[in-house]
Write a structure and sequence with these properties.
Layout (H helix, E strand, L loop, with lengths): L4 E4 L4 E4 L5 H8 L4 E6 H6 L1 H5 L7 E5 L8 H13 L7 E6 L1 H13 L5 E6 L2 H7 L4 E6 L2 E8 L4 E4 L9 H18 L1 H7 L10 H18 L14 H11 L8 H18 L5 H15 L9 H9 L10 E2 L2 E3 L2 E2 L3 E2 L2 H12 L1
Helix pairs in contact: 4-5, 6-7, 6-9, 7-8, 7-9, 7-11, 10-11, 10-13, 11-12, 11-14
The structure holds nicotinamide-adenine-dinucleotide (NAD) and zinc ion.
The site of nicotinamide-adenine-dinucleotide has 31 residues, from helix 2, helix 5, helix 6, strand 8 and helix 7.
């Protein structure tokens, strides 16, 4: 990649560039020792790109791939590996992987010795456009996603779009749901461009990543701890996340992106019910998502089960389900109350 793009965030920079840029970062921060966290797949497909740019005594920590490993056992394994290999306050951990490696590795670094420096090198589309930016780190515990964690910023984020070359299509389209979310909540022009795209593998991902990181970064900079504006990033996630958790471990299990695609269609309809967008706009959103993600109407649990699961979401306050909806296409609002009747109608809108 010839051009390098830098986006400034709170206390750290996000570089969209070649992964070899890691050498410059290491030279600048002069760590006592370098550690790299990889999972099964990033060890195979991504590690060789950066190894030659790292000091010879770099320690590689390997974990198994997959969300199931984003747990306390893996966390203890990483802490132990740091300790046994002499990680000190001046060491650095590079998290080379998707959201699982980034969230878990960042959490390990953020807590080991009350926090050592770490660099995020996201390798999936989801982690490049979403999870590597914003300082949320953590793990799943007792079956609850992201329930234990900290807010902490990395030393920097280095995004090499070339890593996407080895990413399976299933994972690419999974992350693409967050791209469409960013377009719908914050960038009407991007939505209008992307809704014409039939084959996402033909996209210019350097440009896509730059625009998406810019959106996410602006939102999280304005509201780092999710007191207000940051909630707009939950568009599609209230219903989507509920469906995702109900179906987890069943034959109908959906990827996160597939579940929030359903959620965004339903919540677009809620925006229509609330008078924010027209029925035509809601229908267009449905058509675009169905073309990309298929019509999962057979998998959708009952409205009662979805509503009851939403009530248990950690993001709710005092039994009230609050939505982030589209104020218009390309703009979002948050803390919108919606009745159970409207939620049922929105699910019916998706299903029919
Ligand atoms: N911190 C945040 O703000 C935030 C935001 C959104 C999501 N998340 C978290 O992110 C996680 C999901 O992230 P994800 O979708 O990246 O999942 P993931 O890390 O599990 O990666 C998906 C799969 O792709 C493989 N992979 C990664 N890079 C590859 C590459 N370049 N080539 C081939 N295979 C590769 C991985 O090994 C894994 O099998 C969830 O745990 C979620 O909670 C966090
Ligand atoms: Zn998401």
């Amino acid at each position: 990649m010839n051009q390098q793009q830098i986006i400034h965030s709170t206390d750290y920079d996000i570089h969209i560039t070649s992964s070899s840029y890691i050498a410059d970062e290491i030279n600048r921060c002069k760590p006592s020792k370098v550690f790299v966290l990889v999972d099964t797949h990033t060890e195979q497909y991504c590690l060789f790109n950066i190894l030659e740019h790292l000091p010879e005594n770099t320690i590689i920590i390997h974990i198994d791939a997959g969300e199931l490993n984003k747990n306390i056992g893996t966390t203890a394994f990483v802490w132990r590996s740091l300790l046994q290999n002499g990680a000190d306050r001046h060491s650095i951990l590079i998290n080379l992987g998707g959201g699982v490696v980034g969230d878990l590795g960042g959490f390990c670094a953020g807590t080991y010795m009350r926090g050592i420096r770490f660099i995020q090198m996201p390798t999936t589309l989801l982690s490049q456009v979403d999870s590597s930016v914003g300082g949320k780190l953590g793990i799943d515990f007792e079956g609850v996603k992201n329930i234990v964690g900290v807010f902490q910023y990395p030393l920097s984020v280095i995004i090499d779009p070339l890593f996407l070359k080895s990413l399976p299509y299933k994972q690419l389209i999974n992350g693409y749901a967050e791209v469409l979310k960013h377009a719908l909540i914050a960038d009407k022009d991007m939505w209008n461009e992307l809704k014409e795209v039939k084959d996402i593998t033909t996209l210019d991902f350097v440009d896509i990543i730059y625009r998406n990181v810019t959106i996410k970064n602006e939102v999280v900079k304005a509201d780092p701890k999710e007191q207000g504006l940051r909630k707009i990033l939950n568009f599609g996630h209230t219903i989507g996340h509920s469906i995702e958790s109900i179906l987890l471990g069943t034959d109908e299990e959906l990827l996160h992106g597939e579940a929030i695609a359903v959620g965004m269609v339903c919540e677009a309809y809620l925006a229509h019910v609330k008078g924010f967008i027209s029925l035509e706009e809601a229908k267009e959103i449905k058509t675009i998502f169905l073309a990309l993600y298929g019509h999962k109407y057979k998998s959708i649990p009952s409205a009662e089960e979805i509503i009851s699961t939403m009530l248990h979401d950690k993001k709710n306050k005092g039994g009230m389900i609050m939505f982030s909806l589209l104020e218009s296409v390309g703009k979002a609002n948050y803390d919108i109350e919606v009745s159970n009747e409207d939620i049922k109608e929105a699910l019916a809108f998706y299903k029919k």
